[in-house]
User: Fold these one by one.
Assistant:
Number 1:
Amino acid sequence: MNPDVFGVYVHIPFCVHKCNYCDFLSFLGAGDAHREYTKAVLQEIEELDEDRRQVDSLFFGGGTPSAIDSSLIVSMVEALKNKFSFSKDAEITIECNPGTLTGEKASDYIRCGINRISFGLQSTDNKVLKMLGRIHTYEDFTQSLDIARRAGFTNISADIMSALPGQSVNDYVNTLNTVAELGLQHISAYSLIVEEDTHLYEHLKDYPPLPDEDAERNMYHVTEDILAGAGFYRYEISNYAKPGFESRHNKSYWELTDYIGLGLGASGFYKGKRYSNTSDIKTYIDGTAKGELSFIREVEESSVKDRIEEYMFLGLRKMEGVSYSEFLKIFGQDIHSIYADVISKGIKQGLLEEYNNPAEGGVYLKLTSYGIDVSNTVMSDFIID
Ligand code: SF4
């Protein structure tokens, strides 16, 4: 954790169409709504306190940030650059959905300093994309990828999904093999979770059956093997990067580095306090217009116990695990004074392992590959009674 920098997340809640599995805070909206929303975000930026530290990562997530006019994205980047100083190599990412990126948008992004694109691809199979309610085909994705590269992007990520209705291990392997060879720098591979209040949840019986547990586990294992063959290494349970292209935004979140969340429903962890913005669009627009962050934000009390648990849950998701010396530095307590029993039990059961990492400052605790398979159970042991 670097105390001299912080991150910023901006939520853009608009999408062209609601995907069948999606429970993110996103909805349809057109030009006027986009402009009104951007005005509110600019107002929120205006109200932020000065910070002498540098921003080293900025992330536009959603929703579909590439669905709105690029001039609106540029205005938010510029407002943030006027407000804060950015480190020279700051990572500035925009999430894009294939089919919504044009050459003009990509050039505008590059001009204002955006240097990383994260595409929501999900699958290379057009039938699967249609079933998921995605707005694009695989060919739309390859076109968007060309557009991004022609504009000058050299740090590109794609999200893919496994455990989809009707998906066999072979289907998933086809997606993986194709995506692995596209020359991308980063791939996030998530398993589908059927969330309540989605079309998929409510009409599950109308979809092909979900893969069984064995197939799901095979998909999970094959991901690391195939991506390793193409030069990606796994640095977190669901994230793979070519060396040097790990997502700084993700890492700072897992390491509890300060970040400011802006926009509808965004949350932040800033100067020791966790907060969430309202998820109600009217309250957000009206509240920001009043020029006081207290109209849109709810500050949550987070105890040291909460922070320690969160640090362990997030830290153990990273393949390098949790550094004992970093833990001591952040919390002023030896990790064994809290977790001695949990750690020795986990090691005995083959779920956890300690290793020496002299280059990174001593002993680390991480999940074994068996521990990764049952990570939810292992993590639950780190809840402090
Ligand atoms: S594009 Fe992403 S945020 Fe938008 S509806 Fe689909 S899954 Fe949800």
Note: Residues 162 and 191 are 5 Å apart (CA to CA).
Number 2:
Amino acid sequence: MSDGPTDLPAPREAPDAGPYWQAAREDRLVMQNCYGCGTYRFFPSLLCPECGSEEQVWGPCSGRGTIYSLTTVHRAPSPAFRKIVPYTVALIELEEGPRMMTNIVGEGRNEAAIGDAVEVCFEARGTDAKVPQFKLAGA
Ligand SMILES: [Zn+2]
């Protein structure tokens, strides 16, 4: 599923998330990292939620995490998703701290469980976008 472009919808890129989407095109996961206290955050925001600092850099993430919560989608939300149901939507807790909503893709995706180790991969969408997704570690 993450080997080539799909006809699934391309992401709508919010202006303040430009570095996130550009890094995804390069198969890298980045998040805002507070220059003041070092906290990573997701989604992007102007101020650090921990210390209020406006100073931040887009820091690299390991791409490793664990499944905090998940559900299996059996009914497609739009026609484009019909060919991939059932699929797993999960809340991933990254090593750096933030949690992000994503899909579990690849081998064993529908047997994934809370606490499983996962690692990021990138799924091509549209003409030049990629979406960070996660697969079971070692799968
Ligand atoms: Zn901070």
Note: The beta strands are 30-34, 40-41, 56-60, 64-73, 87-94, 99-104, 117-125, 129-136.
